[in-house]
Design a protein that fits this description.
By secondary structure, the protein is of the alpha+beta class. It is about 25% helix and about 20% strand. A four-stranded mixed sheet has the order 2-1-3-4, with helices on one face. The longest helix has 14 residues.
Length: about 110
């Protein structure tokens, strides 16, 4: 049995003081985003093939909520719950990720 994941989504759930100039992903709804990824993966029967989990700070706070996808090395920013289904499809099918989600310099 092949135990390697097809995709591993790391969703930043880091929290900073509300007055921090860079903001934080938790304040930008990342806990709900993580839950949405997990729900979508479960609903599609992808458990064991695709995983979503919380991550600490990914250091792209201004672009949060941020998500990194391995083994693809894709850095995503400004991801909303409504984007999850399409992003999972694009990653699994090897399709291009729309520019609005790409984190500059990553």
């Amino acid at each position: 049995m092949d135990r390697r994941l097809k995709a591993h989504f790391f969703i930043c759930t880091n929290e900073r003081d509300e007055n921090h100039p860079r903001g934080c992903c938790k304040a930008k709804n990342s806990p709900a985003l993580l839950d949405r990824f997990k729900q979508e993966i479960k609903a599609r029967g992808l458990k064991g093939k695709v995983r979503a989990q919380r991550a600490g700070c990914l250091d792209v706070c201004e672009d949060g909520p941020s998500v990194v996808v391995y083994p693809h090395g894709i850095w995503l920013g400004k991801v909303a719950e409504s984007d999850v289904s399409d992003l999972i499809d694009r990653v699994l099918e090897g399709k291009e990720i729309p520019r609005q989600f790409r984190v500059p310099g990553k």
